[in-house]
What we know:
The complex is a heterotetramer, with two copies of chain A (339 residues) and two copies of chain C (367 residues). Chain A has 339 residues and is α/β, with parallel strands linked by helices. Chain A has two domains: 2-187, Rossmann fold; 199-338, Rossmann fold. Chain A has 13 helices and 14 strands. In chain A, the strands form three sheets. A seven-stranded mixed beta sheet of chain A has the order 3-2-4-5-7-6-12, with helices on both faces. A five-stranded mixed beta sheet of chain A has the order 9-11-10-13-14, sandwiched between helices. Chain A has a two-stranded antiparallel sheet with strand order 1-8. Helix content of chain C is 39%, strand content 12%. Chain C has helices at residues 30-55, 70-79, 93-98, 103-110, 142-156, 174-185, 205-208, 231-247, 275-285, 287-297, 303-326, and strands at residues 4-8, 14-16, 25-29, 85-87, 162-167, 190-196, 199-200, 203-204, 223-227, 251-256. In chain C, 63% of the residues are buried. Chains A and C meet through helix 3, helix 4 and helix 5 of A and helix 5 and helix 6 of C. One magnesium ion binds at residues 167-169, 197, 199-200 of chain D. Chains C, D: The pyruvate dehydrogenase complex catalyzes the overall conversion of pyruvate to acetyl-CoA and CO(2). Chains C, D: It is an enzyme of class 1 (oxidoreductase). Chains C, D: It catalyses: N(6)-[(R)-lipoyl]-L-lysyl-[protein] + pyruvate + H(+) = N(6)-[(R)-S(8)-acetyldihydrolipoyl]-L-lysyl-[protein] + CO2.
Amino acid sequence: xxxxxxxxxxxxxxDELARDDRVFLLGEEVAQYDGAYKISRGLWKKYGDKRIIDxxxxxMGFAGIAVGAAMAGLRPVCEFMTFNFSMQAIDHIINSAAxxxxxxxxxxxxxxxxxxxxxxxxxxxAQHSQCFAAWYAHCPGLKVVSPYDTEDARxxxxxxxxxxxxxxxxxxELMYGTAFPIDDKVTDPDFLVPIGKAKIMRPGKDITFxxxxxxxxxxxxxxAELAKKGIEAEVINLxxxxxxxxxxxxxxxxxxxxxxxxxxxxxxxxxxxxxxARIMEDQTFFELxxxxxxCCGVDVPMPYAxxxxxxxxxxxxxxxxxxxxxxxxxxxxxxxAAK
Amino acid sequence: xxxxxxxxxxxxxxDELARDDRVFLLGEEVAQYDGAYKISRGLWKKYGDKRIIDxxxxxMGFAGIAVGAAMAGLRPVCEFMTFNFSMQAIDHIINSAAxxxxxxxxxxxxxxxxxxxxxxxxxxxAQHSQCFAAWYAHCPGLKVVSPYDTEDARxxxxxxxxxxxxxxxxxxELMYGTAFPIDDKVTDPDFLVPIGKAKIMRPGKDITFxxxxxxxxxxxxxxAELAKKGIEAEVINLxxxxxxxxxxxxxxxxxxxxxxxxxxxxxxxxxxxxxxARIMEDQTFFELxxxxxxCCGVDVPMPYAxxxxxxxxxxxxxxxxxxxxxxxxxxxxxxxAAK
Amino acid sequence: YATExxxxxxxxxxxxxxxxGPATTVKLTKDEALKYxxxxxxxxxxxxxxxxxxxxxxxRGFCHLYSGQEACAVGMKAAMRDVDxxxxxxxxxxxxxxxxxxxxxxxxxxxxxxxxxxxxKGGSMHMYSPNFFxxxxxxxxxxxxxAGVGLACKYKGNGGMCLALYGDGAANQGQVFEAYNMAYLxxxxxxxxxxNNNYGMGTSSERASCNTDYYTRxxxxxxxxxxxxxxxxxxxATEFAINYVNTHGPLVMETNTYRYSGHSMxxxxxxxxxxxxxxxxxxxxxxxxxxxxMCIELGLITTDEVKAIDLKVRKEVDDATAFAKTDAxxxxxxxWTDVSSNNLETKIRxxxxxxLDHIQExxxxxx
Amino acid sequence: YATExxxxxxxxxxxxxxxxGPATTVKLTKDEALKYxxxxxxxxxxxxxxxxxxxxxxxRGFCHLYSGQEACAVGMKAAMRDVDxxxxxxxxxxxxxxxxxxxxxxxxxxxxxxxxxxxxKGGSMHMYSPNFFxxxxxxxxxxxxxAGVGLACKYKGNGGMCLALYGDGAANQGQVFEAYNMAYLxxxxxxxxxxNNNYGMGTSSERASCNTDYYTRxxxxxxxxxxxxxxxxxxxATEFAINYVNTHGPLVMETNTYRYSGHSMxxxxxxxxxxxxxxxxxxxxxxxxxxxxMCIELGLITTDEVKAIDLKVRKEVDDATAFAKTDAxxxxxxxWTDVSSNNLETKIRxxxxxxLDHIQExxxxxx
Lengths: 339, 339, 367, 367
Ligand SMILES: Cc1ncc(C[n+]2csc(CCOP(=O)(O)OP(=O)(O)O)c2C)c(N)n1
Ligand SMILES: Cc1ncc(C[n+]2csc(CCOP(=O)(O)OP(=O)(O)O)c2C)c(N)n1
Ligand SMILES: [Mg+2]
Ligand SMILES: [Mg+2]
């Protein structure tokens, strides 16, 4: 059975709207237009004006309204047409949503989901290509998930909606149309993917790739390339950026002794940086046979031109190059053994 | 000669206003009220309404106006009463200021300074205590500086105003009133502190502390404590968060072989995380005798209560504890040698 | 002696896009008179106590006093029903008290002690209670939040509404206009209340607003101007507005008022206005004095009753102050208590490592 | 044949807080007529070319066409002086051309090629030229930016002003109101131009705005409603507005117009409005057809001249299209070229390490 990421998200919304009266969706073009990227297709027809709400193009205002509604007992899902526009509303995400439970000493929790496509799409240039994973995950009080495939998307969004705290769901426009095989259990109305747990997408013993969102795909492709050379790369799909599932990463590194982090966001203070630091601070550090290496988006705003854009994000050969470098002499041995 | 950080900033503004007609200051209460924290004291009287502009409490609007004025040839200094309020305007800092030079292929540079107090002050609770160093430094197209003392404050602000690119100047309210001894050269109208260069505040051979802003003070105090034990800590004041002066850190680590990063911001994807990653990716990594360790703000929103607040940020004994841990057996030896 | 009186509000309401306004002739019972007077006096004394505690350096950080504006809160509260809600900014000690928190709960929060209504974690700007969605330290942020609370009322169909309060300074914030617009489109039961005390910090409303008739700034939203120094006028306007927003949709209400103190404790409040200006308001328009005198004149309250209330209020606040001064702070472990309602972090990072176990004491009201 | 004609604008201006409005009787010379017609036709053809290139997948990402709205840009440009500036949103191919960029500069930018006015780095939404501060991909952001450009004009005392353009959808953004307010307080020479094409993506103005009389939404700021399908009305209003903002301060101008295409290329543009609605505008209000017919009727342009212009424009745009299709992209090293005007990074990080040396080709205009 196959399902696109879009349908995974759409069915997750549908399930949770059906399950809990308090859940509603608001955002630009989510209702009558069926969503700018059609994530909410059919939901307005099914649930009507009360539950699926078109907003004017006023992110700060509608995010604030959504947070207020959550404080007062509803379960809003607030869609940003893309996360780039969440910058207009970021004060409400951080100061109104993330901090309120703590500031109120546990009196007022804020059950809200902020979701939408994050990071680079295709040909949309500098203002529409930013990855917000590291920014949001910097802030306590928020949970941050970043699904890769359909199972992730559906399961994480459903968990996010049921969670009593604010959750940021960073989707990827480029993945919306991709169909992935899914188990029967995934379509179960109570299927959930736990927030804070990573998933091993491909086991391997020689080196670990850890990534989130579309970069997981790059890792899987790179692992396939490396396999041809006799190198078995393990691929970890983070799924959550906050909490970061270090236990899964540590276990993998204890096995492979080599780690490459991969992300499409910018390097400085990024996701990979945090993983490097956590490894350093853990006993697992001593299991490393080589320093951890990062593959990241190039440290520039995203250009429009196709070739430049393609070079702005880590590609398969960047990952294999990094892996070979990290493996050093061992790569040679593995290659030799495979021959 | 002594000068407070406040006077360092005030005189920097005064110098640059006098030097360049295009420079002007805008923000809430900067003119008639002399600045909420009196950084602009006397400047409105001296330069008048044209150059020192009081704004309504509309950060998104006035930051946008400032960026537009910069695009059209002026040199605005945009004060946020605190950087917490910069979240309302962050889209203009990132999308309008940081990305325009690149998006326009080098046609339109944006010479603007965003400045104001950053991070925790005293008793101001969760919404008024956030450190934005890692967020801003995540983004290419921005320069980010974070002065510690008077020399830093004056020299970095002057450099920032003269720079043709957007610069974020993260000050610290708690330091405004602190007087530091200054050299004569510091008061020179052409005194500048280069952006992107760190400063060694105290040389040492056993371990390196690297920090920015008020955390530099904590490091200096911790170094003094360690000195009593015979441990000589080198203290690096980053001064700039972007670019990060890794050369200075590397050189220090090649000497001390031990590194502790210190920051008052949150840990995840923070400044320390980036330094860990950069060390890992450099040959200097092999000079380390122990993993790098981070001291950071506790990973929670800032509480109001005094004791909790005090425990939310790294204190001197946290740093000495971290240093002793990183030094491990060597600490014992140094202590023994000192006896 | 009277048990009820009929009163004309002092200054006429001004209306925007409304054919009819609030009642200008209102009834006041003796019980109500006693209650409003007590409430206003308590707020005044609470603020005086807070100011003193600040000067003693027992309250830290920010401390924004409401003295001079008491009639706004007490008048609105008098009209609110159980289903109604309120959210405001950082000038909320009085509101917190009105919304059910004891003087100890308020003052201990200010001293950062454990009996504070946010256990000392929130401080001056972050107090909450049922139907009170808090103070907020970010100018303007509470306005869309309040519209959201109104949305929840309408969604749940509970007949309630939300008062979203903001200052004349905040009235220029873009998100306020965004909230007006959506509230109008969606007919949300929200009263947008601009407490116009003439200054946003050191900036007079004229220097900050292209139009200082704040009650007209909702554009398509109707508006009412009301004398915010007259508790009965505020009550009447709020009663009208509650009815209006539940039947027609949102409305803007401007309460014309004045703050006696500086903006926060660090502001002497005299560089941008004259001492005479402050004195004149105190003498001619003080909401408590004028109400008291009117009630005495009407025979609704005796001077003895006034004295008794004053004494009682003073004692209550003095006792609360004494308590708040000595009440202990939370133990340090509360630093990592209730960070999330559903904590998923294995360990919370302390200053030097992942060595803290999240403690869950509360789950929050929204389960 | 005439060399000049006197014309009454079609639909009367509507005024807000203005006693007097723009001239309703205007002069049009033959040269002007030829110029406006040529400009409008060029924009229309440029957009048609862009649409086709998009369908051929040579233009990627976003591509927002201006077809139907040509009279707005051409009318405003006709009134602008050398000292005047303009900033708009993402629907700016036409403006880029009017502000001096050649059709090749526009179309090559769209194809991401090196002859593009932003060398292919900006794409559809990020084009710039002298006095043109760009498209902008963030709805509403350009409005305070434009006010800032106006501030710079006033500061420098150069007599210039700035047109800040935004759509009916953007008109609800809070920062637009913030910009109105500050522009008014500071008397900035800014014309806030709301290009009301009735839809923000799939949302009609009625569903997005509490008040769809956008020219009145500046509150204290005066406003003018103008028929945005009538190039002469737009010119007249802009002339009036330029004079007004330089003497009195900011003003809001609403140009009533229509977009023929979908919002961007992925939107067929027919789910939220009927094909008949679009057809009706095309037939009855098309800015180019109506202008052409009027000019012919007045004897200002002959049908032969029209044909000649059409041919010339078609050829110019076809040639530019052909060029833009084959023009090369920048070399990969441009990925790390001109990241900062004053680069201070020792190395720029590539995908796998700090291995890129910043290349400085340009410094930017603001030195
Ligand atoms: C977004 C934001 N900007 C600035 C501040 C700093 N600040 C706090 S209160 C205030 C003045 C607000 O004035 P007004 O809205 O009139 O309320 P009042 O203090 O008179 O009750 C300012 C500028 C803030 N807290 N939040
Ligand atoms: C802040 C922000 N929110 C949302 C978007 C997505 N978006 C781009 S254009 C648009 C519609 C704008 O409509 P309008 O202002 O009427 O301009 P028009 O497209 O009609 O020219 C939207 C929602 C964006 N680019 N920026
Ligand atoms: Mg005020
Ligand atoms: Mg539109």
